[in-house]
Amino acid sequence: MGCADVRIALTRVRAIAPTRVSRIAPTRRQSDRTDSLQHPSHRPASEDLAPTRYTGRMSSLRKAAQVANPLRRNVAIIAHVDHGKTTLVDALLRQSGAFRANQQVAERVMDNIDLERERGITILAKNTAVHYDDLLINIVDTPGHADFGGEVERTLSMVDGVMLLVDASEGPLPQTRFVLRKALERGLPPIVVLNKIDRSDARPQEVLNEVYDLFIDLDATEEQIEFPVLYANARAGTAGKALNAPGENLRPLFEAIVDHVPPPRGDRAAPLQMLVANLDSSDYLGRIAIGRVFNGTVKLNDQVSVLKLDGTEQQTKVTKLFAFDGLKRVEIDQATAGDIVCLAGIDDITIGETIADAEHKLRIPPIAVDEPTVSMIFGVNTSPMAGRDGQYVTSRNLRDRLARELLGNVSVRVEDTESPEQMKVIGRGELQLSILIEMMRREGYEVQVSRPDIVTKMLNGVRSEPVEDLVIDVPEEFQGVVIAQVGTRRGVMTKMVNHGSGRVRLEFRIPARGLIGFRSQFLTDTKGTGIMNHIFAGWEPWHGAIPSRATGALVADRAGIATAYAIYNLQERGEIFLEPSTNVYEGMIIGENSRPNDMDVNVTKEKKQTNMRASTADEAIRLIPPRLLSLEQAIEFINDDELVEVTPKSIRLRKRILASNMRPKKSED
Ligand SMILES: Nc1nc2c(ncn2[C@@H]2O[C@H](COP(=O)(O)OP(=O)(O)OP(=O)(O)O)[C@@H](O)[C@H]2O)c(=O)[nH]1
Ligand SMILES: [Mg+2]
Asked: Ligand 1 atom closest to Cα of 120?
């Protein structure tokens, strides 16, 4: 969402403020509030609060400092993937009057990135703000997929409380645990929302007990365990305090936010400190830093100091300031402690940096996030078809693009390799890395990537590797095959629950390595009915070898154009990955051999022309539809001696060494 098209002059914002009365008439509350008529997004708090001693430490800021703005709430929505966060934000926006009565609004409107819409998942955390009575509630929608956990971690630095959504049928899953742990560690009070109570298989009471167990397991304090519970149907936009009183709208949730999420604390009179927690950019404004003002005030044209991660300082001027308002950003001329705002025009600013008063340079500790554990080598495309459809193909292009990624993505690391043509990219998981590759190819990049590998480290002199908690939900009939498959990947079962619904839940501890390439196998084994989730659990001593793909590849032995005739003759050897008429090169993988060794094949062979008409020859040959691999499937498929070539138009698999006579051959046994 660029800011350019949504600029609204400050005066206009004031003018339209009265129309933003929430549709749900809220009850008057005794909570601290002033009767100012200014727009809540830039209304300063009352001036008469006694200043407290300023310590510069964030934790003490939260607890000890005064209320910075009683009319503000900053809250994040956290949950496991697909439990309904973005859908709930839709309803919160709608019911707070963020849309015009007749406005056409897409479902899951916050998922505004193409890839998010295509996949139905949230990838990047995003801010919005809604009005409730005279309060402004800043809401951050976070992704639920474990690979994007870094987004959640940095989001939590902006807020004073969380809504923990739990699917009333699925119950708490690995990412529920991860995000809740992060929230509890930061001392953020949670509101528990049991969502999807309309599901026919909802079991809210049981799930609530599981949530309590989870809190206890995570050593929550008594205060934290006394969380309010709401039963919600995010799709219908309803929430109620009791199961038998489902409610007619989300007012009970709005009230819970106002009552249980404390107003932001901070000292408005202290020197400015704003922590950059997110980045965005627009063609018009350049880089946009998003973050929370912890102390002080920032005004347009102020001279400020950016305290960079590398310890240096950068003096700059504030040229544009925005606050969130529904799906828009509105220009404001000042922001104070407790506000979440966007600040444009600071070159090179990065997540974790502090924007401070130009004279009192007080740094906020940068956001610490869990380390990434999965790596892939990104290299310049060296295939014979390189540069045919990409716009950015050089190592310089690749380097610049990855450097840009680092700025906005705290959970990715990039390291040099021995070759200047290759970079090692380390992330939280295969999905995170494949999304990055997909984004790059859509931007016009060509790149070739290796099989994902995991990061190891020496702990007390022992080579250790990341292990994950794996939770699997499958119909009973597939239990055996799944347990066997996880076993070969060195997974150890830790728990097994049969809900009596015909499905079982199996929990394992498994080396992260064992999960590489597991998903597609799992989906095949369970005929697409299995659900799997996993999350980083810790480091353990190296678990020993894990067998890689058992099958070999069918490899093109020469360049040319694949023919139907050749494919027809090869399809009994294994599964073919391409359609006839596809351009191939020597060393390109055109299919999966059903035997363990690689086989060089001629997929360009033409049928010999004869004068005689053989009985079957001219019948249309029947081709089995090829297995066209998606980017993720391709990445899961390849072995260490293979690569995936990614261009804006194609995904090809190839041997690392293209020339057949240069390639070491794997023997049949
Ligand atoms: N039946 C039912 N379905 C719901 C409800 N809330 C959300 N859904 C559906 O659940 C699916 C996932 O919803 P999202 O809002 O994308 O979930 P999310 O938590 O934002 O997902 P990620 O951001 O990818 O983690 C969508 O198909 C929603 O329509 C609900 O209350 N009841
Ligand atoms: Mg979402």
From this structure: 16
